[in-house]
């Protein structure tokens, strides 16, 4: 089991422990067993059994934290006596920010930690310009250049949650969008691939084994200047409970969070996910949280994944809220654009 902080250990064990079943995690039989137990969500076929090793890589992109942060953060900055609405969707609150509606694709690379960060950064630049400045922050630049165990992590082999936001403050991250999108200085260089069972126009992810791209301090788009394309953030904030996360999203926009992935999550299709406690974890996964709500009496976080639009609910999923399920409310970060 991969855990993020010592504090999170008890929460993970308490709400996400499981017992092993003698079924392959991507098999039809395993999916059927999920649907027999899950009361608030539905599972379905997202991956083939032979994709197991690759799927574990993209679902385990958050490295376990072994030491305290080496920089100062602002922890739980909000007054929790403030009221929040029962439901909130950043896409509806800031409708002119196109990045809020974009689902990216990390391809066959464990770079979720970078995607969760740059997606929220892109949203926040737009939100804090009164929805007038739409910039896409580059996952490519962050994934390749903030490299090392004492930096953001190991690129396609996983990274951390708070460190990318500190790197945004100290070094800056250039603009850049999805593969071949021409949305800035450095678009993502790893081609989108077919993560899932449906056969489409993209190459099969199983045929690709990407290494972390080389860090290049120049724009792929020759008409743009690297230095002039840099975006920057301010001091990093972290949030360790439901109310703090809600207030931050309500006031400033989406945040990055991470949670422990259990095998059943890989087959999510709809509803409010909560682990069915069947077996051991795959690892840690980082995502963008953009809102919350209540579905048939169950509170949830509204989350954007980075596995393209044909996973889950058009690339999104709902996740049990308010009980630190799988550590979702223990490992978070965000900051304001500079």
Automatic annotation (TrEMBL):
InterPro entries according to UniProt: Papain-like_cys_pep_sf, Pept_asp_AS, Pept_cys_AS, Pept_his_AS, Peptidase_C1A, Peptidase_C1A_C, Propeptide_C1A
Look up keyword Cytoplasm and say if it applies.
no
Please give the organism: Dendroctonus ponderosae (Mountain pine beetle)
Query: Domain named Peptidase C1A papain C-terminal: which ranges?
Result: 84-336
Note whether Heme occurs among the keywords. no
Name it: Peptidase C1A papain C-terminal domain-containing protein
Q: Name one GO molecular function term.
A: cysteine-type endopeptidase activity
Listed SMART domains:
Pept_C1
